[in-house]
Amino acid sequence: MSNLIVVGFPKVDEAEAVRKELVAIQQEHLISLEDAVVVERDADGQVQLRQAINLTAAGALGGGFWGSLVGLLFLNPLLGAAVGAGMGAASGALSDLGINDGFLRELGETLPKGSAALCLLVRDATPDRVVERLRSFAPHAKLLRTSLSHTDEAQLNELLESSRKQAEALRLG
To answer: d(Cα 32, Cα 48) in Å, to the nearest integer?
Structure first.
């Protein structure tokens, strides 16, 4: 079962930096992410979603491949590739894998203008090691929402708080 974790940041750059670090951490098998989306509420109050995966582009690429293959069978690979890419892009644009976009937009409306949130759908993780790696971001991070049990949420809050204190001590020391 996957867990939803939403962490707020005062600036979108910090949320993006944490997402990039999580991708590196995932390659070390310390966390397994199903989805990672940065939700930004800009200075004008507009909500923007920065998806980790562009489903439209991925669909177009896959559709183009399969369209070319079918086109080869019917001796018209260019037409097959064009139709396949169009169909793939359309199906990718209509797909909503991971965290529901409606939920993300609703969450974005609650953020202060000029801030951001990092929404993670976590399949599996080693929380203490992940938080240790993200310590430098802890002073600005705030746990906004989770689907974790109350016990696990309290542990995560404790880890964030201890990391925040350690990062402050390192900065002042």
So the answer is: 24
CA distance 28 to 88: 32
CB neighbours of 127 closer than 8 A, spacing ≥ 6? 155, 156, 159
Write out the two tokens for 99.
């965290």
Question: 39-52: string of b/e by CB count within 10 Å (b at 16+)?
Answer: bbbeeeeebeeebe
CA 95, CA 56: separation in Å to the nearest integer? 9
* Torsional sign, CA 91, 97, 101, 102: positive
pLDDT digits (tens, 9 = 90+) for 128-159: 888 888 877 767 788 787 777 888 888 888 87
Give dist(CA 127, CA 134) in Å, integer. 10
CB 91 within 8 A of CB 63: yes
Question: Is the confidence at residue 39, as pLDDT, over 90?
Answer: yes
Separation CA 76–CA 26 (nearest Å): 42
Judge contact between 135 and 106, C-beta under 8 A.
no
Cβ(84)–Cβ(64) under 8 Å? yes
Question: What are the DSSP E strand ranges found in the chain?
Answer: 3-9, 31-41, 47-50, 115-125, 142-146
